Amino acid sequence: MSVTAEAPKRKASDYISDVKPVWCPGCGDYHVLLSLSRALAQMELEPENIAVVSGIGCSSRIPAYTNCYGFHGVHGRALPLAAGLKVARPELTVLVMSGDGDGFSIGGNHFLHACRRNVDLTYVVMDNRVYGLTKGQPSPTTEPDWDSALSPGGTGLRPFHPLVIALASGANFVARCFSGDVNGTARVLIEAIRHPGFSFVEILSPCVTFRPDEKQWKTLVHPAPVDPTDDPARAARRIMTDDGFNTGILYRGNRSPYRAPAASEPQDPGVLERKFVI
Amino acid sequence: MTEETKAAKNPVEDMATMLAYAHRIEVEAAERYAILADQMEIANNTELAALFRKMEKVEGKHADHIIEKAGPEGIPQFGPLDYRWEEGEGPETLDLTDIHYKMTAWHALQLALAAEKRAYTFFARLAKEAYDKDVQALAREFAEEEEEHIEFVMKEIKKYSAPEAGWDEDLDPPNHPD
Question: What is the pTM of this model?
């Protein structure tokens, strides 16, 4: 027997902090943390060169559970924070982690414009179709007929369709994953991080406490039957007509990412300040 | 059948890879039990936290046993996504989605039993289908060990009775503030 394989530089556990998650047992977000740590280990990225930025919500706790730099920001405002960081420090790998309430309701406007700007970020939304942190209110992606104590008879509202909106707004990479497929999700995350520009990954992540019906998702998800396309119109048609449980990379565009114009000379803050003196 | 599925059906072609897979199965299972123990501590389900912690130690010992078996040459280390599993993760790894904060030891042991059976199936198939005779022999040995684990878990299950319907009902489910 000979051992020839070179040991990887990093283990997945190197990316997980000592802070114990306080998600409910069974929450899909545990899986997402595992997927993220495996993706980063497989890519052998240095934790100090990664920034994990989040807003507010159950899923947005995730920066504390990683060993990377983290920023637990304002509700719905993770994307502008992350865009600023990436523009200022383009050498960093910037990951934005959010949930469906934070990302599509409170942060809905930022989502549109982050897609449009196409800064080289990876935006991961753990979509459980409910506000779990505040005990079960319907979110933008909740089905109109979801009947609960807090929404008797359902909201009757048409759900937000994040993947199509991302495409229409200019996202350069669009994928859907299921949290229970830990290694499959990790592989998609690697592709998303490597792809230049704004990459959007929706992860169906069950809330077993307030949406126990979502435990069925693991029997409903299936790999998308077609290869990713670089045609946004075709991708949009496919996504609009699928059953909502197609997983995998659905769109891989080729727009050039936003690059901040290089400063002609070093910007001295004192010089900048003088421009604003009254 | 895709190339990936084919590879996952027979990922082990030599003794070093065999030991790496066997070790990874036990390490991944131990890590998963550790996560479950942490979850149950947070949820204040102390009985299950203790059970999962015990299972973590048991799987850790199995992993150490494989390191001993490898001897001075050691076990090759691969990246976490270099392993090819037919069902997404290692066969002995519990699915976190199956967990509930009010679950009982009976439920937990049922999940552990299913995990041990998956591990048995993995090694039993390798014992039949691996190309290398030495790999076949080692896989047979591991399959026999998994059979012992299955018997052990089945005995443990007999100590508990199945909970009544509605065990998971909670009119005011908790959330866990920081």
Answer: 0.91
- CA nearest A29: which of A57, A49, A1? A57
Which residues in chain A touch residue B20, judged by CB atoms under 8 angstroms apart?
A: 5
Residue B124 lies in a domain: yes
- The answer to whether residue B156 neighbours chain A at the CB level (below 8 Å) is no
pLDDT per residue over A193-219, tens digit each?
A: 999 999 999 999 999 989 999 999 999
Check residue B177 and give its pLDDT: 53
Query: What b-and-e string marks burial along B35-54, b requiring 16 or more CB atoms within 10 Å of the CB?
Result: bbbbbbbbbebeebbebbbe
Q: Within a domain: residue B69? A: yes
Structural domain including B94 reads: 13-76+83-157
Q: Give the pLDDT confidence of B73-109 residue by residue, as tens digits.
A: 899 989 999 999 988 899 999 998 888 888 999 999 9
Q: Which of residues 45-74 of B touch A (CB under 8 A)?
A: 45, 73-74
CATH for B18:
1.20.1260.10
DSSP state of B175: -
Is B4 among the domain residues?
Answer: no
B95–A180 C-beta distance less than 8 A: yes
Which pLDDT does position B176 carry in this prediction?
Answer: 55
* Per-chain mean pLDDT for chain A: 94
Establish how many alpha carbons lie within 13 A of residue A122's alpha carbon, considering only the half-sphere containing its beta carbon. 24
Q: Domain A12-275 in CATH: superfamily? A: Thiamin diphosphate (ThDP)-binding fold, Pyr/PP domains (3.40.50.970)
